[in-house]
Design a protein that fits this description.
392 residues; mainly alpha; Ribonucleotide Reductase, subunit A; 18 helices; 0% strand; globular
Length: 392
């Protein structure tokens, strides 16, 4: 569905709206069509500048009164929660990447069990090859964190312009600073400690393009604050729990404190908005959330890593997709998204449309875990951050 069609749908109401099917939303009939997923690639591996049409009006508000205390509370938390990437992290620390990855191998391999691949094209791999894979996968993962943080930087700047609420503009401005710091730290870690990284994954880039391209300010919130940042918060939590590398562990802990506020910002803002939406308007948001969830799941196939290792993704990914430990890891990445979607009323509107889609994806079990609208307090620096398996 195009942006104009969605905008018209918002205006016409329930009776005249035609909603998209999977092929329209995702470009394929079968959500798990591996050939269609792998067909989406970066056409220019040397691209360094990417332009996206930003369809939005900058909104001034002349009402400077405090009308949303919950957002002002976040704003006050953000002001005292700032940290300096240059002085608060010890960049002089030596990182022995082979030793680190070897020690973190289970986390680095995203739950992959090497023993399952004995009868595949990588069945001859020994410890050296699996270590090399782990190093490349770490570089790839941190690179996608980096690119996602730049997406958040642009989206939050857009929210500052487009949200009509004064209190939300104030908070969003602090997130712009947060996201700039996140881009800084992930970029610096990759450059100084990992020897460089990977280009943005094509599925992630498509999702970021869609979020930026949409003209409606609440869709920027939904796509970035709730979906992308929600998954990132879970992913950061996993890596923070698994890694024993001190610099990265502290870097992730600081970033998680910021990210939890960012997700809470989205949930608290959209709950107010979505309570007044029609079923047709909510269906558009449900479809957007589903599309975002699938795009994020697709990117975790990390096909670029296999290619760099000299392996055709088609030869190994069918086995990867059947790996039960990896499947559990992937499901857990949605542990923040599903309860937040439930909090926003997205799961059960329109005959439980999004609930059924999350059931098909195997992630509905997280619906009653704690949502992030209050959980962000547990992530503050100085507190013991919740572990990924103890969030409910």
């Amino acid at each position: 569905m195009t942006i104009d069609e969605q905008a018209i749908g918002d205006e016409l109401g329930d009776e005249q709206v035609t909603h998209a099917d999977d092929e329209t939303l995702l470009g394929r009939v079968d959500v798990d069509d591996l050939e269609a997923i792998l067909a989406i690639t970066n056409t220019d591996p040397d691209e360094v500048e990417h332009a996206v049409k930003d369809n939005a009006d900058a909104i001034f508000t002349w009402d400077y009164s405090m009308q949303r205390p919950h957002l002002r509370k976040l704003y006050e938390k953000a002001k005292v929660g700032q940290w300096n990437a240059t002085t608060d992290l010890d960049w002089s620390a030596d990182v022995d990447i082979e030793k680190v990855v070897s020690g973190d191998q289970v986390a680095i391999a995203a739950g992959i069990d090497p023993g399952l691949y004995d009868d595949t094209v990588i069945g001859h791999w020994g410890d050296k090859e699996w270590l090399d894979y782990g190093i490349q996968n770490r570089k790839w993962t941190l690179s996608q964190f980096l690119h996602g943080e730049q997406g958040a930087l642009l989206c939050t700047a857009k929210i500052t312009e487009t949200v009509p609420w004064y209190d939300a503009k104030l908070y969003a401005s602090t997130q712009v600073v947060d996201e700039a710091r996140h881009v800084e730290v992930f970029g610096r870690y990759l450059d100084e400690k990992m020897g460089g990284g990977y280009q943005v994954n094509a599925h992630l880039r498509m999702l970021l393009d869609d979020i930026i391209n949409d003209s409606r300010w609440d869709m920027t919130y939904l796509g970035m604050q709730v979906m992308v940042e929600g998954l990132a918060l879970a992913a950061f939590g996993f890596m923070h729990q698994m890694t024993e590398e001190p610099l990265l562990k502290k870097l992730l802990r600081y970033v998680m404190a910021d990210e939890a506020r960012h997700v809470a910002f989205g949930v608290l803002s959209l709950k107010e908005v979505y309570e007044g939406k029609t079923d047709a308007e909510m269906r558009d948001r449900q479809e957007f959330a589903f599309e975002a969830a699938v795009r994020m799941r697709d990117r975790f196939l990390s096909q670029e890593v296999w290619e760099r290792m000299g392996v055709a993704p088609r030869d190994v990914l069918p086995i990867v997709l059947k790996d039960p430990t990896r499947d559990l890891f992937q499901q857990m990445l949605f542990s923040k998204i599903v309860p937040n979607c439930k909090k926003l009323g997205l799961l059960d509107r329109n005959d439980k449309w999004l609930r059924h889609r999350f059931e098909e994806m195997g992630v509905i079990q997280f619906e009653d875990w704690e949502d992030t609208s209050e959980e962000f307090l547990k992530f503050e620096i100085g507190a013991d951050a919740p572990t990924p398996v103890a969030g409910h």
